[in-house]
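Protocol check, entry for the methods section draft. Step 1: assemble the input record (protein sequence plus ligand SMILES). Step 2: submit for complex structure prediction. Step 3: store the structure tokens unaltered in the notebook. Ligand used here: MTE. Step 1 record:
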Amino acid sequence: MEKLTNALAARFASPTRSTRLSVVLGRWLGLSFTICLLTGLFSHGLQEPPSWMFFPTSPIWIYQLTQGIHVTTGIAAIPLLLAKLWSVYPELLKWPPVKSAAHGLERASVALFVASSLLQLTTGLINTYKWYPWPFPFRQTHYWLAWVIWGSLLLHIALKLPLIIEHWRARSGNRSQTTPGAGSPEQGIDDGAAVAGPGRWSRRAFLAAVGTTAGVVVLTTAGQSFSWLDPLNLFAPRKMGTGPQSVPVNRTAADAKVADLAGAEDWTLTVSHHDIRRALTRSELQVLPQYEHELPIACVEGWSQTARWRGVRVRDLVAAVGAPASSALRVTSLEPEGAYRTMDMPPAYAQDERTLVALELNGQTLDLDHGYPARIIAPGRPGVLQTKWLHTLEVL
Ligand SMILES: Nc1nc2c(c(=O)[nH]1)N[C@H]1C(S)=C(S)[C@@H](COP(=O)(O)O)O[C@H]1N2
Ligand SMILES: [Mo]
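Step 3, stored output:
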């Protein structure tokens, strides 16, 4: 058995499966996972704020940028991870499967890392297509999987550190020279085998192909988040400028089962602070001072779109019920149920002069699917917190 599997491993040896290649791909992958972790923590923090969270309202596109980077980098990591798996999979054939405690630990950490990253990247990708075919809550699962990935990755890096250091820089001899160990069970997939024979890919060509694939995937999807790449957007689910009033709709009024309530003649927005309570009709809101701002909707799923919003400043409504300027708010939607029905707004956003109860979008009365009769639009916040079909604003 040992002979057979090790012979197989040697048989698969190729310049595209050298340690140096694994290290180079590992670096790219490590960089993309780091970017995803940092941008992901920011996004998660905005939605479920820890006590130390900071809430930047400027630049207005900060979340559009961080989440665009998060989703685009995650997509680019898919070809990188597949290439990395390709570069190391003969290792799996080596016999015996566990040689020592350290070796067993290393294999277990790799197995955990591979399984959790594949799950993370595929569910993340599926999520950008607004498809949630699983019974668990996406964001929390995504968050905890990230820690599993990082735990197993750090363990993997620690155990492989000697190899990583040895192969961090390209060595001139690697590609041109056959070492005596080439093809032997121990070194079959190591640099000894990194010789570009006839019909085999050189390491450089393989890396170039992987880099090109990742680049093409980025260029043909990033247009959903970065408008200047929109002409190249072939595969991302959302195109700029589509949907009512030239803005994509995430969930329609019909889907949210809110159409009747939102269309009701006697709709009012209730603003309250302790015992003070004011119910404002749409026409009463319209006679208050109106402000207009260009602000993006930046969905957690990666797409974003900037639009012109017009309406009443939230801070003016806070003042109208006698509450201090630095108040936090609880906002509820007419939506009868669901995760987006209530939203908490920290003082940083309630105070910002660009945070609106929007009544108009791109110069027209807000479309029912964009949140008519009124919705929240605030700078720098995830789309999920831009509550549509407003019902109440309560000062906390
Ligand atoms: N009440 C309510 N508000 C909501 C939602 C929702 O489902 N219900 N979806 C949110 C999400 S996920 C996004 S990205 C934005 C999208 O706004 P749009 O559909 O007007 O583009 O609205 C947010 N506001
Ligand atoms: Mo969203």
